[in-house]
Specification:
11 helices, alpha/beta, hydrolase activity, AB_hydrolase_fold, AB_hydrolase_1, Rossmann fold, 2 domains
Length: 259
């Protein structure tokens, strides 16, 4: 499946930025803009992962391997040649690790933005909490304000609700509906979070690095120690939460370029 995607930059280093659960490629556009300006040698691809954004519908049974294959296929279809540098936030990081296992010759390196190779426990999954609220929201409404009110009424912050309603589209009747299949995403969420991806970090020749947010629980101290022991450097952004590219963009960019 060739995914909906954005491109930026005219360089020769193929760099693929992969967003998190419920997001889209444009979530990482600010990072791509800043990185491209600082390093013109790169060419950036920002796909909407399978089942997200404009990459619909999601085929039944989609898993991390499916998503990884779609990313590589899209990169090749869009003209990116040579081994790819994959940079993934949250779900995007897990897709990156899966790609390095499924097609190692296509992947030069993996950079993890606040995610580890371990299965994600349900009680640590912020996306799971958001998904539960999303599943309770109406399928359709007269306008975005109604959906937004339903989301905030279930405890979501206003910025998070504003981000989610970007996934609403107009209906022929004049109202709005969700662009994606919420139940299919719920099923995908369980599959991708339950996958153990340590083989991608601990295999011989793996080239993986990770940065974690100091206010996030996604990468535990034990995970960080195990990654370091496997030769995967782990950096910390003390003031950042899970969305490291939003909370500390300049510090993240400096770390990305300090390779």
């Amino acid at each position: 499946m060739v995914l909906e995607s954005l491109q930026l930059g005219e360089g020769e280093v193929p760099t693929v930025l992969l967003h998190g659960f419920l997001g889209s490629g444009r979530n990482l556009r600010s990072l791509a803009n800043a990185w491209s300006a600082a390093d013109p040698s790169r060419r950036f691809l920002m796909p909407d992962l399978t089942g997200h954004g404009g990459s619909l519908p999601m085929p039944p049974g989609t898993d991390l391997t499916t998503m990884a294959r779609d990313v590589v296929e899209t990169a090749r279809a869009k003209g990116l040649t040579g081994p790819l540098e994959l940079v993934g936030h949250s779900l995007g990081g897990r897709v990156s690790l899966a790609a390095s296992l499924a097609s190692p010759s296509d992947v030069a390196s993996v950079t993890l933005l606040d995610i580890s190779p371990s299965p994600v426990p349900v009680d640590l999954s912020e996306s799971g909490m958001v998904l539960n609220v999303l599943l309770q929201a109406p399928e359709t409404a007269a306008n975005r304000r109604e959906i937004r009110a339903a989301l905030t009424g279930q405890g979501l912050s206003e910025p998070l609700a504003d981000w989610l309603v970007m996934n609403l589209v107009s209906t022929p009747e004049g109202g709005v509906r969700w662009r994606f299949d919420r139940q299919a995403l719920a099923e995908l969420h369980g599959r991708v979070n339950g996958t153990n991806l340590w083989a991608a970090v601990e295999r011989p020749g793996a080239k993986v690095r990770c940065i974690r947010g100091g206010r996030s629980r996604y990468v535990t101290d034990a995970d960080a120690a195990r990654m370091e022991a496997a030769g995967c450097p782990v950096a910390l952004l003390p003031e950042a939460g899970h969305f490291v590219h939003v909370d500390a963009p300049q510090a993240l960019l400096q770390w990305l370029m300090g390779r």
